[in-house]
What we know:
heterodimer; A: 139 residues; seven-stranded antiparallel sheet; 4 helices; 38% helix; B: 175 residues; alpha+beta; 5 helices; 6 strands; 31% strand
Amino acid sequence: MKRKMSLILIALVFFFTGCATTQQRLLDSESSQVQLRSIQTRAFDTTDKEKTLRTVMSTLQDLGFVIDKADATLGTVSATKLKGYALRMTVTVRPRGETQLLVRANAQYNVQPVTDPEPYQQFFAALEKAMFLTAHQAD
Amino acid sequence: MGKVSALFLVSIFLITGCQTIPKDALTLSPQSLAERQMQTRKYEMKDEGKILSACAGLLQDMGFNVDESEPKLGLITASKMRSAENAGQIAGAILIGLLGGGAMPVDKEQKMRAAVITRPVGELGEYIAVRVTFQRIVWNTEGRVTKSESIIDPAIYQEFFDKLSKAIFLEGQDI
């Protein structure tokens, strides 16, 4: 009886912590998009996109990343940090109104999306310092 | 019995549960300033494109293939695959095999990556700062990743910049 119970418990554990279906992960739509966007986005009071992208790149370097690619026209930078794990980040910069730029970052830790607010707060704190500008919450 | 199944449960959580990102993954480490200094040199010239092309040439000299470049942002990334075989490790694996320990996987190959970023610095933008960063991934004979790391060896960066200084000087010399 006890044995049966523990078997069921184990099966349940697999069910909850293991992955439900694998196709859904293409769009990762189970997390709230609005919430995720606000965690990952900050606004800066500048319109200099190129300088902002260059600052993003040097901040990523300071954090131990090696830049993978960058595109000035699209305003994107991707980089990877290897330290026993693989942390990949993409940062995009685009204009918001006449006076601001929106900076959005998303990260992937090994094979998982990073959805905690804290790592993004840390990233933007480092970026603020390098930009000499305050990062505003974008919403 | 209870203890064993508890242990079992914990190990299942460890295996299937989520690994989370380390707390310090996106914070500036105390070494980050020293690393930046080690990985950066500035050159007194205004032509960023010229320095970038010298860097591309230098990476080629070192056997790298250029993967991506974006001159508007001063970026070149490059990579190369190399053997990661290491005589000491192979000897150890053979010894273990002889002692009846079975076949031990050893490091087989590695991918080495480099990114060079240039940017104008100084009050009038009279200098170009060049920062290079290297990293590598090592796979063993079973195809598993055994190392993934940044390369933090001052001698490597010193040699890179010695060569870059020479390359920039040589480029300046062509008639």
